[in-house]
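User: I've been trying to design a sequence by hand for this structure and keep getting stuck. Would you show me what you'd pick, starting by listing the structure so we're on the same page?

Assistant: Good idea, let's start from the same input. This is the structure you sent:
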């Protein structure tokens, strides 16, 4: 079966593409390379440079490559940027998805794995966030993902599309050093950037109602996240009636301070200490996934702990710094 992976040259997408190929499937990557890198796309995957907003290009890709299903990862994901540029985020994330669905329906493609986000929940006041927890996103990024889920659900009812909307929690780590996150928008690479400059890691908010006063998050290894995509793709291939909305997390919370301490231990930079700052607006105290539904529906259970995430991310950082220095 041939799958189209949008955003397949990005951090998460590159992991999904490799796992898909290892599973014996064929992969065509569509990526505009605005944040992705062509060099992470395997040679045995097809590659098309372009945007999901390009309807004519999508029609050609579906026609020429006999696409049987789509894994839609392309999109914009920076919360602060979404607040400053809401129209841009709605265009990229919502109109991009609408254009993709139009092309899928026209081509008769009826399988879709969608990259959603825990940001759809907003600031839930619960110990564990279940898929049925009310969604109340607090920024345009989260809104765009929730609207995307609604759009997929409506299209599925109208056109018989089997889908799995995967609500990612905090993604970290790398399966291989060359696939490590090259951005600086998540906690671990942000801390790496600080210690790379000889500066102490910065923690925003130390007065939350949590055991150590810092935010608690559910971190998921990107290799586990990729495995969840493959499990979802297999389910859709076997079950044309599947209509799934699933959390992808470990069901375990780790505080920001505990994660920063672990990073210092792994990198040998404990001597830098920690710098604290005021809370950032909109940061919920605790967001941890309930993971029973994805285990029940897909047989998926995360395998990697937070130490594996930090160690693999650090190996990627060292490899990239070494490559630049040569």
């Amino acid at each position: 079966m041939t799958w189209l992976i949008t955003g397949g040259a990005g951090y998460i997408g590159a992991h999904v593409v490799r796992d898909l190929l290892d599973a014996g499937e064929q992969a065509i990557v569509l990526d505009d390379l605005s944040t992705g890198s062509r060099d992470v796309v395997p040679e045995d995957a097809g590659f098309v440079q372009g945007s999901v907003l390009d309807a004519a290009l999508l029609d050609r890709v579906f026609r020429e490559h006999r696409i049987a299903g789509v894994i839609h990862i392309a999109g914009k994901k920076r919360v602060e940027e979404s607040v400053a540029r809401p129209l841009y985020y709605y265009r990229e994330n919502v109109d991009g998805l609408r254009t993709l669905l139009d092309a899928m329906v026209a081509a008769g493609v009826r399988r879709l794995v969608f990259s959603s986000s825990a940001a759809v929940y907003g600031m839930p006041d619960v110990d564990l966030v279940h898929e049925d927890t009310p969604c109340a996103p607090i920024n345009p990024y989260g809104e765009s993902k929730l609207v995307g889920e609604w759009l997929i659900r409506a299209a599925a009812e109208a056109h018989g599309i089997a889908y799995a909307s995967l609500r990612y929690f905090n993604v970290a780590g790398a399966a291989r050093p060359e696939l490590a996150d090259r951005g600086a928008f998540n906690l671990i690479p942000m801390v790496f950037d600080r210690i790379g400059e000889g500066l102490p890691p910065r923690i925003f908010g130390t007065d939350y109602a949590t055991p150590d006063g810092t935010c608690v998050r559910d971190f998921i290894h990107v290799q586990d996240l990729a495995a969840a995509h493959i499990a979802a793709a297999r389910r859709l291939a076997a079950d044309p009636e599947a209509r799934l909305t699933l959390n992808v997390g470990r069901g375990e919370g780790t505080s920001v301070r505990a994660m920063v301490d672990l990073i210092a231990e792994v990198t040998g930079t404990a001597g830098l200490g920690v710098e604290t700052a005021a809370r950032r607006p909109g940061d919920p105290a605790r967001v941890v996934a309930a993971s029973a539904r994805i285990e029940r529906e897909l047989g998926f259970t995360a395998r990697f702990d937070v130490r594996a995430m930090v160690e693999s991310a650090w190996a990627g950082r060292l490899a990239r710094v070494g490559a630049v220095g040569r």
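That's my pick for every position. To get oriented when you compare it with your attempt: DSSP finds ten helices and 14 strands in the chain. The two ends are 41 Å apart (CA to CA).
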